Amino acid sequence: MANWHLIVPYDEWATEWLAAHGYRHPPVQSGNRLPTDSEIEEAVQELGITSNAPLYIDGVGVGDSFNIRGDLVLELRLLRRLAERVGQMWVYPDSGSPAIVVDPTIDPEAVAAAWLRSESADDSWTEFLGKLSDA
Length: 135
Known about the structure:
5-stranded antiparallel sheet
């Protein structure tokens, strides 16, 4: 089973942190927020995710974040669908692995593959996100 991934709205703090470390990142779009319980339930149903799927969600509606774990591609498919409603989200793994910015344009399979490949690099963050400058 995967580690927990903290989900927060992608905001200026995230871009400032990523920029301070020299990582490439998209600009923040206005209106980013967390999904509601009902929005998550609706997205789960739309995607046909069943109760026996390898996906666990915890802490929705109790704070300024929630947690998700399970199959990474399934996580990203769900978060991409939610991003269509709530805007960009930041997936921050509790393992120290690179963060993922999710918006409606990502390709979950391609992002998951790149993220998993980066795990074997000496600097997984730079491998996954790249640097703002090649200099």
